[in-house]
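Form 7-S
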Amino acid sequence: MKLFRSRAEKELDGIISELKQYLANNYKDQAHLMRKKLHERAEALHAEGKLSDELFERYERLYESFTEEMKNYNHREFYSS
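Output:
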């Protein structure tokens, strides 16, 4: 963990923190919204030049790992029985 992080990194890390909290509390809809927000903000910050290519790739990998983890994360799994 870096000692000095940019505002962009702090913002994205805050989104990740919220996302993890929603996952832990089983708030499926909110978790999906935060995952989408992570991706959109990372792209926007990168386009604005506030996020380096290296950091952008790091956050995109995190987004992809959350996407894979949440692949079947929905309410339907509880209603199918």
